[in-house]
Amino acid sequence: MLKSIDTIAILFRSRVKISVQYFSHFLLSCIVLSVIVFVYFISICPIQSHQYDVVENLARSAQYPKTQHFAIQLLQQPNLTQWQYFQVMRAYQYEKTITMRYPALNTNDTLPRF
């Protein structure tokens, strides 16, 4: 009798252990899925007025021509989403980092050649 109770107790412990593992995996996957859904809904929301002003300023600025062209294309659309705004800002940051600025050079400042 004791042996059968011990085997039942061992089976119950192993099943509880497995179900706790499955529960933790299920809980973690639900959290990850909810974060993904939340980010999706945030990215399809329309932009705010100050973000629209930033896109307009980038469209008027000729300092970064590829970003300017991209911003002009986006302003032609009726509604802008957060995702499109972040694309413009990423293009602006990328173009800003790859563009090297050199100071203005005066011809009189050059070294004389022998």
Structural notes for this entry:
With 114 residues, this protein is an all-alpha fold. It is built from four helices and no strands. The protein has helices at 2-43, 49-60, 65-75, 82-98. The radius of gyration is 30 Å and the shape is elongated. The termini are far apart.
Summary of the model, kept short:
The protein has helices at 2-43, 49-60, 65-75, 82-98. The chain is mainly alpha-helical and 114 residues long.
Secondary structure elements and pairings:
Layout: H1 2-43, H2 49-60, H3 65-75, H4 82-98
Helix pairs in contact: 2-3, 2-4, 3-4
Task: Looking at this protein, list some descriptive labels.
single chain; 114 residues; mainly alpha; 4 helices; 72% helix; elongated; transmembrane; transmembrane helix; membrane
Residue runs with pLDDT of under 50 for 5 or more positions:
none
Distance between the termini: 109 Å
Number of strands: 0
How much strand?
A: under 5%
